[in-house]
Amino acid sequence: MATLKGPGAPKSYDGSGLRIGIVHARWNSTIIDALLDGAKKALADAGVREENIVIQSVPGSYELPYAVKQMYSASQVQSSSTGVVGAAADLLGSASDLTQFASSSQPKDSLLKTPFDAIIAIGVLIKGETMHFEYIADAVSHGLMRIQLEGNVPVVFGLLTLLNEEQGLQRAGIAGQGKNEGHNHGSDWGSAAVELGAKRKGWV
Ligand code: DLZ
């Protein structure tokens, strides 16, 4: 059924030449896992090669901006040292710190090749009884926006800010008895990363 919400009719972009990073939080892992699967499937459907998708995790959503920044900076360091692309001087910390972060769970070779064309940040915040939710949601939203504007890399906003768990199950497409109700927003985030990554190579 047609709906007013959403990004409109899907247009396909070629992801075969793109390198995409995903950083996800682990809080609320059932919902996170489904969103991650949705994002990965959309990337694969657009032709992004498995070896060009790098996935890192952090404990909670609050850690997302730092991790996205480090992931992108590390790939920039490697690229500039191999002469592929210039440095992102404003973003960089010490090169050894960045390399350490980059090597934490995946082989260096898979992470440190060329800079990412886009990075997807995925987190699930569920409102509790205190103001914690509001502070984290606000800080993470601003942090991610800052990174994409200052770092000149598209950062896809995959942060769900939910009033309850049911809203998350719906938005991950795993609600209901059959665990298949709702719409998986991770899929939209994967498509957004490919579109932005592809357009970034040729804005006119
Ligand atoms: C502490 C906390 C709480 C209460 N709730 C969530 C949540 O719903 N979603 C989420 O991603 N993270 C949560 N966290 C963890 C914080 O994001 C963060 O990891 C810790 O405060 C440590 O910095």
Label the CATH architecture.
Answer: 3-Layer(aba) Sandwich
The helix count comes to 7
| Beta fraction | 5-15%
Name the CATH class. Answer: Alpha Beta
The string of secondary-structure elements, in order, is EHEHHHEHEHH
Radius of gyration, CA atoms, in whole angstroms: 17 Å
In the CATH scheme, what's the topology name?
Rossmann fold
N- and C-termini, Cα separation: 35 Å
List all distinct small molecules, including ions and cofactors, that are bound in this structure: ligand DLZ
* Count of DSSP strands: 4
| Biggest sheet features | 4 strands, parallel
Percentage of residues assigned to helices:
40-55%
In total, the number of domains comes to 1
Please identify which CATH superfamily we are dealing with. Lumazine/riboflavin synthase
- The parts where pLDDT drops under 50 for at least 5 residues are 84-99
Residue-averaged pLDDT: 87
Side-by-side strand order of the widest sheet: 2-1-3-4
Q: Could you say which structural class the secondary elements and strand pairing correspond to?
A: alpha/beta
* Basic shape: globular
List the helices and strands and how they pair.
Blueprint: E1 20-25, H1 29-45, E2 53-58, H2 64-81, H3 95-102, H4 108-111, E3 118-126, H5 132-151, E4 155-162, H6 165-171, H7 185-200
Parallel strand pairs: 1-2, 1-3, 3-4
Helix pairs in contact: 1-7, 2-3, 2-5
Bound molecules: ligand DLZ.
